[in-house]
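**Archive record**
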Amino acid sequence: MNTRKNLILFALFFIIYEFNAYIANDMIMPGMMVVVNEFHSPLENIAKSLSLFIIGGSSLQIFLGPLCDYLGKRNILLAGNLLFLLASGVIPCVQSINQFLAARYFQGLGLCFIFIGYATIHELFNDKTAVKLCSLIANISVFAPLMAQF
């Protein structure tokens, strides 16, 4: 019973991680005009912010698989979650647009680790449950932009 509880807790926390990772981008984009105005920055930094977030999200993919095999998926997933959390915590404290853009890149790096959670779900759950759970989690990335509008 304890193992089942741990599996459910893992899935729940992974859902929260994914929701936060996607909504972090979707919530900031409508307010980017305010951000660039606050830093007296050119408007092209709006696109640069999104680009750096996406580039961050794809920067480590080739290295994470072997790193997970060496250090374990749990440790790498927790490190990625911590990286995302720290980058998100730094954003309200930045003093310049360059610091903001750097924090957005590191936020994207934290997003990069999400695929490890999907791999872990497929290892921990039977096929039918894993597919249902992954479908539920994938819906979060679809609904996050809608939630960000509220």
Q: What stands out?
A: The CA atoms of residues 57 and 82 lie 15 Å apart.
